[in-house]
Write a structure and sequence with these properties.
Elements: E1 15-18, E2 36-40, H1 49-58, E3 67-70, H2 78-89, E4 97-99, H3 124-131, E5 135-138, H4 143-150, H5 159-170, E6 173-177, H6 179-182, E7 187-191, H7 194-198, E8 202-203, E9 217-221, E10 229-232, H8 241-250, E11 257-261, E12 265-270, E13 275-280, E14 284-288, E15 293-295, E16 298-307, E17 312-314, E18 319-322, E19 327-328, H9 352-361, E20 368-374, E21 379-398, E22 402-423, E23 450-454, H10 463-473, E24 479-482, H11 490-501, E25 509-511, H12 536-542, E26 547-550, H13 555-562, H14 571-582, E27 585-589, H15 591-594, E28 599-603, H16 606-612, E29 614-615, E30 629-633, E31 643-644, H17 653-663, E32 669-673, E33 677-682, E34 687-692, E35 695-700, E36 714-723, E37 727-729, E38 734-736, E39 742-743, H18 767-776, E40 783-790, E41 793-800, E42 806-812, E43 816-837
Parallel strand pairs: 2-6, 3-4, 3-5, 5-6, 8-9, 10-11, 23-27, 24-25, 24-26, 26-27, 29-30, 31-32
Antiparallel strand pairs: 1-18, 2-12, 7-9, 11-14, 12-13, 13-17, 14-16, 15-16, 16-22, 17-18, 19-21, 20-21, 21-22, 22-43, 23-33, 28-30, 32-35, 33-34, 34-37, 35-36, 36-43, 37-38, 39-42, 40-41, 41-43, 42-43
Catalytic activity: [L-4-(L-arginin-2-N-yl)aspartate](n) + H2O = [L-4-(L-arginin-2-N-yl)aspartate](n-1) + L-4-(L-arginin-2-N-yl)aspartate
GO molecular function, one term: serine-type peptidase activity
EC number: 3.4.15.6
């Protein structure tokens, strides 16, 4: 919780951060364009209301919009049909939407040969059709197929493109996602990755680089609708900062920025106002190459910023306007910890904007951080990120209580290095084994209740999770909210409002007076509520509820509020057990999920736990960002394994493995729940189900080796990852994958050499996505590696396909990739690390 910042609201009427450059003179800006652009970074979800509504409004509104969809980039008509259906669901008349017959290639799944549609780009019939439109949308796929369709061989505009430009200049909105975003700028990035970009390798041919672990940057001519710089897409998910930086440094940008748009996020460009609005669910990177220099393979003084929804850019004057709902972090940093370098899948906040937000700009203890990017030979780069005098960070909430950061003017330097690894089982010789004693807790096998355990950062819009909780409470249910984990009542009030938004009557929801500490922002001293844990009147009232929710914060405050000092159950906790056994649903997010198992992980980081082991001391919330793991007694509502949360964002695989090795029962799985995701367990069926926007990692140590002489060494761990709609039957230990997904085994979509996961610029940088795209759905790879190291010591983490390994893929929420995988083999090997700077 960030309660300490709320008082700053009165100081924040508007935040303007200047770049010191007053104007730009981009080619084409002298042309008066009345139209607008909606440029989406890819994987646009059907549920992304803001992006769809902006596009429709700019096209004239749902009643007057006339929209054409250009299918040229795709391999089929599926995405165009899907987008048409999405527009209809948002109120546009079916008769007002047309899929334009523009393509240079044949589509799969149709009877006709759409290659013949290429000639339509020169036909007056198509021109007249386009001129009657108020909006055009380019679907995703291959951007070269769009330009091949709309540009002549000599690079000049076809009649269809001339018509698109005509309506755009007169006021129409043009939009596109993925490839449909890439074509928007004059300089069109068509291929390549960050490693290829930092190597300063470019290509002018459409060639595959699958035999290498990197791809050179491939540039072609775009359609130039976006007048304010270079655009790239799928930016954070595919870690494309290196390739965009290379393009910005190599090609004349005429003083403009370069923009990298994340998935499910969009830039709305208002040409008449000369502004760019950020909308959607993630961030837009803004690269300023004006003061940067390239010295061989070294890059110095590159300026990078990340803007989030609600922010706006004055494109002409290059000024950032940060949403007034966000608060400055400078001088009010929430965190105070020594961040480890971002070196692989065990790094907390492993994507670049998250890493810089939490570890640098909102962290009082750090003024610089670093990460790495290299191939399997160790040839690569060290990335240094540093706060400058003009660096600023801004924090707020979005979609309920999900952190939303913006950060501006972080300095980035890139230097070539060679990394070498050597196995050494004794490199960590001060490992402290756990001294925690697992409590003897009895569990009634006749328990009828259910659990909804959310991994943290639960969005108010996550209907699937809220409905799961409300439905299991039953009709006309009453709910109690336990605020004990938090430092204020804000999260409890927000959850109450969320329940009301989903149809629960206000009179049916109570915030229960249970806490061991005072809250900010109230007159009452809530530390007095500690005595309520044995208040008979409150204990009786608890028995009336059908659902109980534990909000997030510090899990030790929940257990301290409900367990007696000797570890026995308080009267209130006895009542919670009583309604749970009779059929009530218990739920919680973040800390509210951590308390569910017998063994409660209260603090520690993955790298530090594997290296140092466990500690018997706890110094509060800051310990959750790193250090040896600290364990306490949980409440035991889920007796079938150990639960961890914030799993993807805080990279907690290492600490869950070490804790499970020390304390899990034989044959028992352990579970890491991602943010905005819930693991749902119904005691009567013994079945677990996943709901929400990410997934749940399932760790199986039943066949694993962890020798006492080398406590940091692990072999033969089995790792699975299941997502929305997937289930696990604990009675039979069998997984069932949602039937909307198909197996990738022997039908892998990708075929390329994948570099190790080495830090924040590794493509698909979260653990589950890295394995899904680069291993499970990649024909070329049977094994992947990641490294985690600090001060010359670390780990080599190896992920292998085995006989029972299987991946699954489908679409969700429109055309967003949805993966699951089962039984990936995982080994952890201690190593020594040597880094040499290259000239």
């Amino acid at each position: 919780m960030k309660v300490s910042k709320f008082f700053m609201l009165v100081l924040m009427m508007s935040v303007i951060v200047g770049s010191g450059i007053s104007s730009i003179s981009a080619k084409g800006n002298e042309t008066s364009i009345k139209g607008s652009l909606v440029i989406a970074g890819g994987s646009l979800g059907t549920s992304n209301v803001e992006v769809y509504e902006q596009f429709i409004d700019l096209a004239g509104g749902d009643k007057d919009a006339k929209i054409g969809i250009v299918p040229a980039a795709s391999g089929s008509l599926k995405s165009s049909i899907q987008f048409k259906e999405d527009l209809i669901s948002y109120g546009v008349e079916k008769s007002s939407i047309e899929i334009l017959q523009l393509s240079s290639h044949d589509f799969s799944g149709t009877d006709q040969n759409e290659r013949k549609w290429k000639s339509n780009a020169q036909k007056n019939k198509m021109v007249n059709k386009i001129k009657g439109l108020s909006g055009i949308w380019f679907v995703g796929g291959d951007q070269l197929k769009i330009t091949d369709t709309l540009l002549k061989k000599n690079g000049k505009k076809t009649k269809a493109l001339e018509a698109i430009w005509s309506i755009y200049e007169d006021g129409a909105v043009l939009g596109g996602t993925s490839a449909g975003a890439a074509i928007m700028s004059n300089v069109m990035i068509t291929g390549g990755d960050s490693l290829g970009g930092f190597r300063h390798e470019f290509t002018s041919e459409d060639v595959s680089s699958s035999d290498k672990e990197y791809a050179p940057v491939y540039i072609e001519k775009g359609l130039g609708f976006f007048q304010w710089g270079i655009v790239d897409q799928h930016f954070n998910e595919r870690s494309r900062l290196g390739r965009l930086a290379a393009a910005a440094l190599e090609f004349e940008t005429q003083g403009n920025y370069a923009y990298g748009i994340d998935e499910d996020t969009a830039m709305v460009v208002h040409n008449k106002k000369e502004t760019i609005d950020i909308i959607g669910r993630s961030t837009v990177a803004v690269i300023d190459p004006a003061e940067a220099e390239r010295k061989g393979k070294e890059i110095v003084n590159l300026d990078i910023s990340y803007l989030s929804p609600g922010d706006q850019i004055d494109a002409k004057n290059k000024i950032f306007h940060i949403s007034k709902d966000k608060f400055p972090t400078v001088g009010y940093e929430y965190f105070n910890f020594d961040p480890l370098p971002a070196t692989g899948v065990l790094t907390s906040y492993g994507t670049l904007p998250n890493y810089l937000s939490y570890s640098l700009v909102d962290n009082e203890a750090a003024t610089e951080v670093k990460s790495y990017l290299y191939d399997s030979k160790g040839e690569g780069f060290q990335l240094n990120f540093e706060q400058k005098e003009e660096t600023e960070g801004f924090w707020g909430y979005q979609d309920g209580q999900k952190d939303s950061y913006s950060l501006v003017h972080v300095k980035m330097d890139v230097e070539p290095i060679l990394v070498h690894f050597e196995e050494n089982n004794q490199v960590f010789n001060n490992y402290h084994p756990s001294t925690f004693t697992v409590p003897e807790l009895s569990f009634n096998p006749e328990t009828k209740g259910s659990l909804v355990m959310a991994g943290g950062a639960l969005g108010s819009s996550n209907e699937e999770v809220y409905e799961a909780f409300i439905t299991r409470a039953g009709e006309d249910a009453t709910f109690g909210i336990i605020p004990a984990a938090s430092s204020s009542l804000k999260s409890s009030n927000a959850f109450k409002e969320d329940l009301m938004q989903y149809g629960v009557d206000e009179e049916s929801i109570d915030i229960l007076p249970l806490s061991n500490h005072d809250f900010s922002g109230t007159k009452e001293n809530e530390s007095d509520w500690l005595k309520n844990r044995n208040n008979e009147k409150l204990a009786e009232k608890i028995k009336e509820y059908d659902g109980i929710w534990f909000v997030g914060g510090d899990q030790t405050d929940i257990t301290a509020s409900l367990l007696n000092e000797d570890g026995t159950k308080s009267k209130v906790l006895e009542s919670l057990w009583s309604i749970y056994e009779k059929g009530a649903v218990l739920g919680g997010t973040s800390a509210g999920a951590a308390i569910m198992s017998d063994v409660m992980i209260a603090g520690g980081g993955s790298h530090d736990t594997l290296a140092k082991g466990f500690t018997d001391t706890y110094d509060g919330m800051s310990q959750q960002e790193g250090g040896a793991s600290y364990l306490e007694q949980g409440l035991g509502f889920f007796p079938h394994g150990i639960i961890d949360q914030h799993f993807d964002n805080k990279a907690r695989l290492g600490r869950l493995i070490a804790t499970s090795s020390a304390h899990a029962d034989e044959g028992e799985f352990s579970y890491g729940i991602d943010e905005d995701t819930a693991l749902i367990f119904d005691n009567q069926t013994g079945v677990m189900e996943v709901a929400g926007r990410a997934g749940v990692s399932v760790v199986d140590l039943s066949e694993a080796a962890n020798p006492k002489h080398a406590p940091s060494l692990y072999e033969d761990i089995q790792l699975s990852w299941i997502t929305s709609g997937d289930t696990l039957n604990l009675n039979t230990k069998t997984f069932t994958i949602s039937d909307h997904k198909v197996s990738t085994k022997d039908y892998e979509y990708f075929d390329y050499e994948a570099a190790p996961h080495s830090g924040v610029l590794t493509p698909h940088s979260t653990l589950a996505n890295f394995l899904s795209y680069s291993l499970l759905d990649n024909y070329r790879e049977d094994e992947l590696k990641s490294y985690s190291f600090h001060e010359g010591k670390g780990f080599e983490i190896t992920f292998k396909k085995g006989e029972n390994t299987e991946g699954f893929w489908g679409y969700q929420d429109g055309n967003k990739d949805d993966y699951s995988f089962l039984h990936v083999n995982l080994n952890i090997q201690p190593i020594e690390v040597y880094i040499v700077e290259e000239n």
